[in-house]
Structures are given as C-alpha cells and as structure tokens.
Design brief:
single chain, 2 helices, 8 strands, alpha+beta, three-stranded antiparallel beta sheet, 28% strand
Length: 130
C-alpha cells in the first residue's frame, strides 16, 4: 500500500480523542461524510465532514512511531471492513418454469412435473421456453 493514499492525524474530541488514519481510496458514497480509522476504537468509522474537519490536525514527522502503529492497526482493521457502497446485495432470481426429466427415480416413464427454479435441489431438470 502506497503512503500517498494515507493521511495521518489526530482527532481532538475531548475524552474521545484518538490518532486517526484517512485512506483516500475509501469512499462513503456521500460527499458529506468520510471514513477514518480510529486507533483507540480499533475500527474504521464514518464521520460527518463538517463536524470532524475542525477537530483534525495532521501528525508531524516526529510522530513516526505513531504513524507506523496507525498503519499496522489500520491494515488489520481494513481486512474486516466493507465500505457501505460495496456491501453485498442479494438479488432475487427470476422464477423460471422447469420440468423434471422423466428418468427421475420418483416418477414414472411418462410423468413430468413442473417446479419453480428455486424448488429444484437435485436431479436432472430441463428449462422450457415460455
């Protein structure tokens, strides 16, 4: 991971103050918010830009050890993080008319039975055009 994508800073928020890391590649899908890795919480959180911006200050070169610790913890948290814009979406499959083939063990030679696509778990089935 390239350093040009990271911004190291400190969130000055009273008792909730924490070193933070901004990965510029993470997008919330909302121009009003951003993701920051919060070291004290150990997770990537979504913050409102208007609230958080005045409370952030950049870490200096003297904070190299803290930057290293931030990066290491961020990489670990990033492995379990799914940005809101890329969450898995379940898409229902269209129902198709299918016919179980005549050689199924439960049917006689000339029997055919119709099922929806989701009813078929095993066996040989044939799609029919509508």
């Amino acid at each position: 991971m390239s350093e040009k994508y990271y911004w190291y800073g400190h969130l000055d928020a009273g008792s909730k103050s924490s070193p933070v890391l901004l990965d510029k590649r993470l997008d919330t899908g909302n121009a009003d918010t951003l993701y920051l890795f919060n070291l004290n919480r150990g997770e990537i959180l979504e913050y409102k830009r208007t609230i958080i911006a005045p409370k952030l200050r950049e870490l200096g070169r003297q904070d190299r050890e803290l930057n290293k610790m931030l990066k290491t913890a961020y990489i670990e948290a990033r492995q379990c993080f799914t940005p809101r814009g890329s969450r898995d979406v379940t898409i229902a499959l269209p129902t198709r008319k299918v016919t179980l083939a005549a050689n199924d063990a439960h049917m006689g030679e000339n029997e055919r039975e119709e099922f929806s696509h989701n009813d078929i778990s095993d066996g040989l089935w044939v799609e029919e055009e509508a």
